[in-house]
């Protein structure tokens, strides 16, 4: 399955680059689905889909494939551990940037310059990782470090000049969205289907296009461009951005679930952590903007 996350959009766990979780017979945790041809880790022949899979065995009596204990494959614990390391790096560097790069008038230009530079470096590292065939832990942690510097300076500036206390609200809001989507996904209140994926992708493309147009108007026309970042429209688009982030999380959870079910290599847990981090950064920034607008209108 492919995710809307820019990391996962290029690399699904499906051999045909389709939707691994959307086959007629769903994969089950602990082994591939019977008759499923979509897994790159369960390549087979016309007579047996598991004939060339070293991890699959057949029951001699029933002929049904069995999934023996395997080593070196991705587990939920791996994803949790790698995500904690990646997010921990973001938080640590954000705190250091907040403390070491003050946004007082005497240092504002320097701090902003470093923040913009860090954001550009993080973007480049994210793009490089997205096009690599295999995840690179060093590259992912470097991205997290530079992203944290950017978030630390921006958060400090918003808290100092726009809305005091908004950073804590944005963090709590991001955690609430993550927890809510996780519960909804585990309870199957959210069902990730091909239609769901198509809707989220279309909405995300439209959202990003509108934000890009607004930015161009703001740069060349001054002010807030088309008004998508302030006032009533700003609140509306902030809510839409958060909802899209929640949809991204659901797609990422599905990606992780399929990777575990299909027996993806353990190194893929770094890719899952990278994608989840990108999504959580998206949600945090949208939360930060939304709460800033709400407090500014009080």
Characteristics:
298 residues; mainly alpha; two-stranded antiparallel sheet; 7 helices; 61% helix
Secondary structure layout plus pairing:
Blueprint: E1 57-58, E2 65-66, H1 76-100, H2 108-131, H3 137-161, H4 166-186, H5 194-221, H6 231-261, H7 268-296
Helix pairs in contact: 1-3, 1-7, 2-3, 3-7, 4-6, 4-7, 5-6, 6-7
Give an overview in words:
The chain has 298 residues and is mainly α. Helices cover 61% and strands 1% of the residues. It is built from seven helices and two strands. The chain has helices spanning 76-100, 108-131, 137-161, 166-186, 194-221, 231-261, 268-296, and strands spanning 57-58, 65-66. The protein has a two-stranded antiparallel sheet. Helix 4 crosses helix 6 (231-261) and helix 4 packs across helix 7 (268-296). The longest helix has 31 residues, at 231-261.
């Amino acid at each position: 399955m492919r995710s809307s996350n820019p990391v996962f959009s290029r690399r699904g766990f499906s051999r045909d680059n389709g939707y691994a979780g959307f086959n007629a017979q769903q994969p089950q945790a602990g082994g591939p689905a019977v008759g499923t041809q979509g897994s790159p880790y369960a390549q087979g022949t016309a007579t047996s889909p598991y004939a060339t899979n070293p991890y699959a065995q057949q029951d001699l009596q029933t002929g049904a494939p069995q999934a023996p204990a395997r080593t070196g494959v991705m587990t939920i614990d791996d994803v949790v551990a790698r995500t904690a390391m990646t997010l921990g790096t973001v938080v640590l560097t954000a705190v250091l940037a907040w403390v070491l790069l003050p946004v007082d008038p005497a240092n504002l230009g320097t701090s902003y310059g470093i923040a913009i530079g860090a954001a550009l470096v993080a973007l480049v590292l994210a793009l490089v990782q997205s096009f690599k065939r295999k995840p690179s832990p060093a590259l992912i942690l470097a991205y997290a470090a530079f992203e944290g510097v950017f978030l630390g300076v921006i958060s400090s500036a918003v808290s100092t000049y726009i809305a005091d206390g908004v950073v804590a609200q944005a963090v709590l809001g991001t955690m609430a969205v993550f927890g809510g989507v996780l519960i909804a996904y585990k309870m199957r209140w959210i069902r990730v289907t091909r239609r769901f994926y198509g809707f989220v992708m279309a909405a995300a493309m439209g959202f990003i296009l509108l934000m890009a147009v607004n930015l161009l108007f703001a740069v060349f026309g001054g002010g807030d461009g088309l008004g998508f970042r302030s006032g009533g429209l700003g609140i509306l688009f902030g809510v839409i951005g958060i909802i899209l982030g929640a949809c991204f999380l659901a797609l990422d959870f599905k990606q992780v679930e399929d990777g575990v079910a299909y027996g993806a290599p353990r190194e893929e847990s770094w890719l899952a952590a990278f994608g989840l981090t990108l999504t959580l950064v998206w949600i945090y920034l949208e939360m930060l903007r939304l709460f800033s607008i709400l407090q500014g209108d009080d």
